[in-house]
Write a structure and sequence with these properties.
Blueprint lengths: L3 E8 L2 E8 L2 E13 L3 E7 L5 E9 L5 E9 L3 H9 L2 H20 L20
Antiparallel strand pairs: 1-2, 2-3, 3-4, 4-5, 5-6
Length: 128
């Protein structure tokens, strides 16, 4: 993903991110708050100076086709981020990264080997 300098998984549900988008460098931690492999993963930031949250859902369309939906919520800070967000640079960055991720997965042909366990949304219990 362009703009992501590094991601380090610190345990099954936490990661440390370093990003640089539009010349603005951010460092923050995230927590997976819901995960169901091949269905959805939701996260929220913890700490850092750019609070955000998001969810990625996977909709199986057939044996070789999946629709991926990405939803993110964040509040830009500072003049550069606010100006970029106003003209849609943040949305374009996410879409371009999704296209690059699609190419990566299709070329690889399988999961990356990361942890694929279930995390139930707080207050929810599902049978897996």
């Amino acid at each position: 993903m362009q703009g992501v300098e590094s991601v380090r998984q610190t345990d099954a549900t936490h990661s440390h991110w370093v990003t640089k988008v539009g010349g603005v460098r951010r460092e923050f931690d995230t927590e997976i708050v819901e995960q169901h492999p091949d269905d959805r993963v939701a996260w929220k930031s913890i700490g850092g100076d750019a609070p955000h949250a998001g969810v990625v859902t996977f909709h199986r369309l057939g044996d070789k086709d999946t629709r991926v939906t990405i939803q993110m919520q964040w509040e830009p800070t500072g003049m550069v981020e606010k100006a970029g967000s106003a003209v849609g640079m943040d949305s374009r960055q996410v879409k371009a990264d999704a296209v690059r991720f699609k190419k990566f997965i299709e070329q690889r042909g399988m999961e990356t080997g990361g942890w694929r366990g279930h995390v139930d949304r707080p207050g929810q219990s599902m049978n897996h």
